[in-house]
Amino acid sequence: KQEVTQIPAALSVPEGENLVLNCSFTDSAIYNLQWFRQDPGKGLTSLLLIQSSQREQTSGRLNASLDKSSGRSTLYIAASQPGDSATYLCFTGFQKLVFGTGTRLLVSP
Amino acid sequence: DAGVTQSPTHLIKTRGQHVTLRCSPISGHKSVSWYQQVLGQGPQFIFQYYEKEERGRGNFPDRFSARQFPNYSSELNVNALLLGDSALYLCASSRGGFSGANVLTFGAGSRLTVL
After folding, report:
1. Are the CB atoms for A104 and A11 separated by under 8 Å?
2. What is the DSSP letter of A82?
3. What residues in A contact B107, CB-CB < 8 Å?
């Protein structure tokens, strides 16, 4: 059974800091790994998708890495902004799809 | 292009009733998946469909069922509603194959309250 854990559960930082969100999964037989953000009371927005054959993916200030052998993915956010405040979720699976436990990020001005 | 549309956006039911939630995927997307998100928790996978066939199922009771139509839209049905079924139900679509293999686009969700 795939279990996906995210650390930290919550994070509060001042604007401008670089930060790292962690995602760990127990079954390395994954297709891909995706990172999403969710704003309160709203749906999910896809940020990055890393295919199982890739090790890294970048979009703007976001960089995600994937290490299948160790069962880990990290999301790096550079120069954080208040607009980055949201819950960040990693997501993976094949026939059964699993979201991580989430990291609630608050970036203060 | 329209995004993933879900209906209804909000609904209130009583215990024991039945509910049908609907999802229209992005044009060109043939895969649909459903998720339940209880307040304060992450989404839990319910079903995924591709080309009208079920491709995966999460750990939900048989009261939950779904189907995908020839136009790739989908319905999620829940019978004999329980208080614990109160949640935001999210639908996502993707281009093809297994939902985990492609970028997912989510709808805004249907918020179900069971009294």
Report:
1. yes
2. G
3. 43
